[in-house]
Amino acid sequence: MPKSKRNKAVTLSKTKKKGREHKESIVNSIRQAVDDYNSIYVFSFENMRNLKFKEFREQLKSSSRFFLGSNKVMQISLGRSVSDEIRPGLYKVSKLLHGDAGLYFTNLPKEEVQRLFEEYEEHDFTRTGNTAIEKVELKEGPLDQFTHEMEPFLRKQGMPVRLNKGVVELVSDFVVCEEGKPLSPESARILRLLGIKMATFRLHLICQWSPQDFEVYKEGLDLSDVESS
Fold first, then answer.
1. Which pLDDT tens digit goes with each residue over 65-116?
2. Beta partners for 105?
3. DSSP label at residue 109
4. 73 near 126, Cβ under 8 Å?
5. Which of 114, 122, 205, 222 is 20 to 30 A from residue 214's alpha carbon, by CA?
6. What is the spatial distance between Cα 226 and Cα 221, in angstroms, rounded to a whole number?
7. Could you give the domains of the chain?
8. Measuring CA to CA, which residue among 151, 158, 150 is closest to residue 188?
9. Residue 173: CA count within 13 A, CB half-sphere
10. How far is CA 15 from CA 23, 43, 70, 223, in A?
11. Phi and psi, residue 176, nearest 5°
């Protein structure tokens, strides 16, 4: 096996001392992980939920390690070209680190990793500015799910409500959100109150590297894209 270049000095310029030391610590940790684990994956994510991701990391802690953060720092850690990559082929991994992405180091078999990532899915409440995936409309009449104390708050969210004998009542049909349109802060709050979860936190494998091979998973991306970039 080729000698690791993990101890090669790295210059992280234009940073204050504390910030530089933190980045150098990340670089060293990633380079140590290259030595400690059998394979490396780049993954992307959508609708990140930190608590859910933390739980997923804990689940795999005994066999794996995740890194999220600055793509540039992760690229520097692995090497961004043939001349500075710390292991043969790792510059290809670096070139796929962009956007919402991270590194996953593991000793698990490839098939097990693919199964874990394909099956992982967590539903959650969507946030302001996200796109509604369906139209939600409330019909005129009583809203039994809300207590009378909620009536002033619902009115502040733009809902045409009133109290009728202590029961919150919608005086006319009300559209909470339209499919394909961004959610307002008020719409996001109402959806949460209604218990409607429109966001799905997912993880997607982009590529896999090991000393023996390199494989691209992401649809529409092939090895020639990486090698020519």
1. 999 989 999 999 999 999 999 999 999 999 999 999 999 999 999 999 999 9
2. 40, 65
3. -
4. no
5. 122
6. 8
7. 22-125+200-216 (3.30.70.1730), 130-196 (3.90.105.20)
8. 158
9. 5
10. 9, 27, 14, 34
11. -75, -45
